[in-house]
């Protein structure tokens, strides 16, 4: 065996039995990807009918058992439960003696680092925080999407190589996140991904109200280009009436939203203010145009259009 092969074998985890506690959208997909890498799923726990169906679809022939039994059967345990449930679950499993020395305990929460697994650590387990930065559907397509998916990785330094190796085996790309930075890291992802879904859904509803028959097809090219430009260029990709300082157009937007979708007004104003602040800070929004615009955004009332603002889109 060559030196490089010897190093790879040392860093690569041995083939492990895998258990899943919480058969939501994430756990079965990760276990299925680990199975493709040669590991062996042996147990899964799930409460709801939907969880049980997901487990049956993605992990056929893997028995459904209580959480404590999952830990008894598995060398690598994935805790894939909602963030708020994680601390109590870890404490409960540790207190009942379900955690074994040398067992790999992995959670997939973006909010928490490895410290939330301290009760398991005190019981002799090896704690890893591996958060896939992806939205999951709970179907087989998730396993394919894990290819190239970034994972936020947090673990004790001595387990860093093992944590990163597991991510690579699932097809992901490890990104080291410090324990203290996990909440900010997760807030950034939620701000971008979760709020994006809300914005897109609202935009499609408004287009339907305006008579557009296929709002998804209308928005697809526009939003795809906007996302690509934003990822490439940041604030330089800003465009539209707020960045141009078109106070009259923005006032008309607010008026239309108040009439047809009042539930969307607060979100529009908040995002427009944030956009105006960034456009003003980077010099895209001219200061002389900002006063009227910020006035519209402050109270949502109509302002007269500026006839001198004839800038192209």
From TrEMBL:
Coiled coil: none annotated. It holds the Pfam family DUF2520. Residues 8-132 form the Putative oxidoreductase/dehydrogenase Rossmann-like domain. InterPro entries: 6-PGluconate_DH-like_C_sf (IPR008927), DUF2520 (IPR018931), NAD(P)-bd_dom_sf (IPR036291), OxRdtase/DH_put_Rossmann_dom (IPR019665), TM1727-like_C_sf (IPR037108). Residues 149-275 form the DUF2520 domain. This is Oxidoreductase. The lineage of its organism: Bacteria, Bacillati, Actinomycetota, Actinomycetes, Kitasatosporales.
